[in-house]
Amino acid sequence: MSRPTRIPAPEGVAPAAQYAHVVTATGRLVAVSGQLPLDEHGALVGEGDPAAQARQVFENLRRCLAAAGATFDDVVKLTYFVTDMAHLPAVREARAAHVPDERLPASSAVQVAALVRPEFLLEVEALAVVAA
């Protein structure tokens, strides 16, 4: 079974501490839409608490990946949308509970003026490649 190959620092590119610059993989693409801090009933988890929201978002990502026959081991790219860059440590902590440092995906973090509802502090989407 093929697993994604991570290249944390290509020649001539400064190493990244919290992501891999390049991830390659061959297989079936799984795209997971941006996940929000909602429980299975659609209720907000962690109002005003970026750590609680991040934990719920990563649990939702885990469930979505599982529905497609994937795991966090298959994730090649995460995109973080945050309303405040100060929320990134909470996002990284929640990610660390699911993704070990040696399997960090490529990542982008974008600060946005707002998400779909004002109480949402963050949203995370994922791309995974499942070995064929």
Structure report:
Belongs to the RutC family. InterPro entries: RutC-like_sf (IPR035959), YjgF/YER057c/UK114 (IPR006175). This is RidA family protein. The chain is α+β, with helices and mostly antiparallel strands and 132 residues long. The chain has one domain (15-130): 2-Layer Sandwich (60s Ribosomal Protein L30, Chain: A). It is 20% helix and 28% strand. The strands form two sheets. The protein has a four-stranded mixed sheet. A two-stranded antiparallel sheet has the order 1-2. It starts with a strand and ends with a strand.
Present the secondary structure layout.
Layout: E1 5-7, E2 22-24, E3 28-35, H1 50-67, E4 75-82, H2 88-96, E5 106-111, E6 122-130
Parallel strand pairs: 4-5
Antiparallel strand pairs: 1-2, 3-6, 4-6
Helix pairs in contact: 1-2
| H/E element sequence | EEEHEHEE
End-to-end separation in angstroms reads 8 Å
**Category by helix and strand content:** alpha+beta
Assign the CATH class: Alpha Beta
Mean pLDDT: 95
| CATH architecture annotation | 2-Layer Sandwich
Number of helices: 2
Instruction: Give unreliable regions as ranges.
Output: none
Query: What helical percentage do the residues reach?
Result: 10-25%
Query: How are the strands ordered across the major sheet?
Result: 3-6-4-5
CATH superfamily: RutC-like
* DSSP strand content: 25-35%
Compute the number of structural domains.
1
The number of strands is: 6
Key words describing this protein structure:
alpha+beta; RidA family protein; 132 residues; two-stranded antiparallel sheet; 60s Ribosomal Protein L30, Chain: A; deaminase activity; 6 strands; 2 helices
